[in-house]
Amino acid sequence: MGSTVIAVIFALVLVLLLAIRPLKRRTSSAERKKATANEYNSGEEAALPGIIVASLAAQKAFVSIASGGIHEWARDRFSIGYIGGYTDAILQLKGIESKAVAEGIANHVFAAAFSHDDGRSLYRKYLSLKLAGDPEVAAGKHSGDSDIMSWLRNNANIPLGWSDYVLGTVA
Fold first, then answer.
1. For the chain, what is the domain count?
2. Is-contact 158 151, C-beta < 8 A?
3. Residue numbers of the domain that contains 72
């Protein structure tokens, strides 16, 4: 099992290095408008759900490694806030300003992280609770966003906040 964990972490780091690191590039206002105008059909935006899902794959594996599935507590308010914040941070870094594009990508990420039907309902729950100012969703959102920003500052800060939370390994 140790080699599996190492392989998963390696895959996560590789995906993040190859996919998310270029997101730091500054885009001009004209480039962002063009990307927004092309909506979800442009190649770059179309690739984002896969990139986000792949970068979350290691955490999902850690969360479900013992049981073969995702426990209920991995679907709680903090968890859906984490996935939402993680996704939002990447979308902001990419300069995705279109609400329709962002929601389409987030819907896809939630469906992949939790299963198609559960993910869609959990995404709707996330939006509702975020709008209501739920403190657990806000804490999870902050953690997901912080994981991405921390990783961008230092490659050694691999984003594992969701798995740490679910497995109870947060210090």
1. 1
2. yes
3. 2-167
For residues 67 and 42, what is the distance between their CA atoms, to the nearest angstrom?
Answer: 38
Q: Mean of the pLDDT values across residues 34-55?
A: 61
Q: Mark out the alpha helices in the chain (DSSP H runs).
A: 2-15, 29-37, 43-64, 77-93, 99-114, 116-132, 135-153, 161-167
Q: Count CA atoms closer than 13 A to 70's CA, side-chain side.
A: 21
Contact between 36 and 98 under an 8 Å Cβ cutoff? The reply is yes
Q: What three-state secondary structure class fits 21?
A: helix
DSSP 19: I
Q: Helix, strand, or coil here: 158? A: coil
Tokens of 105: 């990508």
Q: Return d(Cα 136, Cα 142) in angstroms, integer.
A: 10
Distance in angstroms (rounded) separating the CA atoms of residues 136 and 35: 33
- SS in 3 state form for 121-139? HHHHHHHHHHHHCCHHHHH
Q: CB–CB of 160/168 below 8 Å?
A: no
Predicted local confidence at residue 46, as pLDDT: 65
pTM value surpassing 0.85: no
Q: What was the pLDDT predicted at 50?
A: 75
Which residue shows structure tokens 């902050």? 142
